């Protein structure tokens, strides 16, 4: 019973669940904001009505998702003070800087421009209104960058000095924090993956309507756009993921070893990548494995003869550097999370590629399973992103800040297990309810489809109707 009420365990579960729940909204907000801006730009340049319809249609989905994301993000940041006060005390001077930039600069930029976009449809010039959605999009992307910088400090701490008298890390260079090599690699990887999520939603919604022969003039171009976006963003996600892998090997070699469950240091042919393995978690007994020779070596070093350090060697190095302890993450979690992340992303890309082929030159497939597959493909890239973050955070364990602060030392000392359990149950119930509300609102907006074409005053560029209310 005491183990079940362990404040550290419960605090980790609570923060993990809160983060995952919040992250369900983040990729769609970033990706859909960019998508809406692209559609509105197309309307601005061509004047074609279906681009305006798509702008306002997907704009509704974007705004519903944005509102829910703001609420859950605020709760997440409160937990740094409630459950992780020792962490906040120790690295708050460093970690708080990019978070402050996110809140005071990026979020206010995003919110201000978004307000202009929502209420300015027939009140501001057409060009200024277009600028507002791009401003909101840039704000959301900047917000993501600052948050990734904060997280990257936990993966690879830079730009700090330890104040021995106060017993905490203090910021010495904000520039180093903002140009952390892990952040520079993780940001494009995350951004392109967000575009994959947005593309998946567009594909799903368009396929649902096309299956019912509804809104053909808007949904067919939307479907093709979504599939091309998925292919482009998917390719860029793979390339940027490769660069992130190199940064991971350099800064956290244990995470790469845990991703492959590689216990013995290997070189060249022996540094293979296992597509699928059955065996014991200690790496001693391997019952069955499908392996690609040299691939792990190439992914880790960009050479086929590179050496990849194993868990056993790294564990010994960390004991020597940091003292006695187990510095190995939970191997089965990192191993399978790494593979599920890759597999789900590849399946999403393959669906888009097949879809482009079978809908080429105006073709409309008649097989209902084709449309159902497209409709239900929307969770794939989102699930891949969530699992990818689970890999990122679990692969860092037992460190909260790699090499500086262990997770067990970051929890609030005065927090009891009962208190955390009560708040955990309350948050879970509230978030579960909000999730149902969010899903129904987006589902209702998606199934309704785009509004009828809107006439535009060619002289002023203003819409010839009353202000749109979202």
| Principal-axis shape | globular
End-to-end separation? 49 Å
Domain tally: 1
If you compute it from the alpha carbons, what radius of gyration comes out, rounded to the nearest whole angstrom? 24 Å
Tell me about the biggest sheet? 2 strands, antiparallel
Number of strands: 8
Strand content: 5-15%
Provide the residue-averaged pLDDT: 86
The strand line-up of the biggest sheet is 1-2
Low-confidence residue ranges: 465-470
Structural class of the secondary elements?
mainly alpha
Short description:
With 470 residues, the protein is mainly alpha-helical. The chain has 15 helices and eight strands. The chain has helices spanning 7-23, 26-46, 49-82, 85-119, 126-155, 174-178, 181-211, 216-251, 253-260, 295-301, 311-322, 331-358, 368-375, 379-394, 417-448, and strands spanning 160-163, 168-171, 266-267, 273-279, 286-292, 307-308, 399-401, 405-406.
């Amino acid at each position: 019973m005491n183990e079940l009420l362990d404040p550290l365990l419960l605090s980790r579960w609570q923060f993990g669940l809160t983060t995952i729940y919040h992250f369900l909204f983040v990729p769609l907000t970033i990706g859909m904001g960019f998508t809406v801006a692209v559609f509105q730009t197309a309307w601005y340049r061509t004047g074609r009505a279906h681009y305006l319809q798509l702008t306002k249609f997907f704009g509704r989905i974007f705004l519903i998702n944005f509102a829910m994301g703001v609420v859950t993000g605020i709760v997440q940041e409160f937990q740094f003070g409630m459950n992780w006060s020792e962490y906040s005390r120790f690295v708050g001077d460093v970690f708080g800087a990019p978070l402050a930039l996110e809140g005071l600069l990026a979020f206010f930029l995003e919110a201000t421009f978004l307000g202009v976009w929502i209420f300015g449809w027939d009140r501001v010039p057409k060009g200024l209104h277009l600028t507002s959605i791009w401003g909101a999009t840039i704000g959301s992307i900047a917000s993501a960058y600052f948050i990734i910088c904060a997280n990257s400090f936990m993966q690879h701490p830079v730009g700090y000095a330890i104040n021995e008298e106060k017993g905490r890390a203090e910021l010495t260079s904000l520039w180093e924090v903002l140009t952390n090599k892990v952040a520079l690699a993780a940001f494009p990887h995350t951004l392109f993956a967000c575009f994959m999520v947005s593309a998946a939603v567009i594909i799903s919604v368009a396929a649902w309507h096309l299956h019912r022969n509804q809104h053909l003039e808007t949904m067919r171009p939307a479907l093709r756009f979504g599939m091309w976006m998925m292919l482009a963003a998917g390719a860029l996600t793979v390339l940027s993921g490769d660069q992130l892998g190199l940064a991971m090997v350099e800064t956290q070699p244990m995470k790469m070893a845990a991703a492959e469950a590689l216990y013995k240091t290997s070189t060249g042919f022996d540094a293979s990548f296992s597509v699928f393995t059955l065996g014991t978690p200690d790496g001693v007994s391997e019952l069955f494995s499908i392996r690609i020779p040299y691939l792990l070596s190439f992914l880790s070093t960009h050479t086929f003869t590179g050496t990849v350090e194993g868990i056993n060697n790294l564990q010994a190095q960390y004991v020597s550097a940091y003292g006695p302890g187990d510095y190995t993450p939970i191997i089965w979690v990192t191993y399978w999370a790494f593979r599920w992340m890759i597999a789900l992303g590849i399946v999403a890309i393959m669906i888009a590629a097949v879809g482009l082929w079978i809908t080429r030159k105006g073709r409309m497939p008649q097989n209902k399973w084709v449309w159902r597959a497209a409709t239900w493909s929307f969770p794939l890239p989102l699930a891949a992103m969530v699992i990818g973050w689970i890999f990122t955070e679990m692969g860092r364990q037992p460190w909260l800040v790699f090499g500086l602060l262990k997770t067990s030392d970051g929890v609030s000392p005065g927090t009891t297990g009962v208190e955390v359990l009560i708040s955990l149950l309350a948050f879970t119930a509230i978030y579960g309810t909000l999730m149902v509300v969010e899903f129904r609102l987006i589902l209702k907006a998606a199934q309704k489809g785009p509004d009828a074409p809107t006439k535009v005053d060619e002289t002023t560029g203003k819409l010839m109707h009353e202000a749109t209310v979202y």
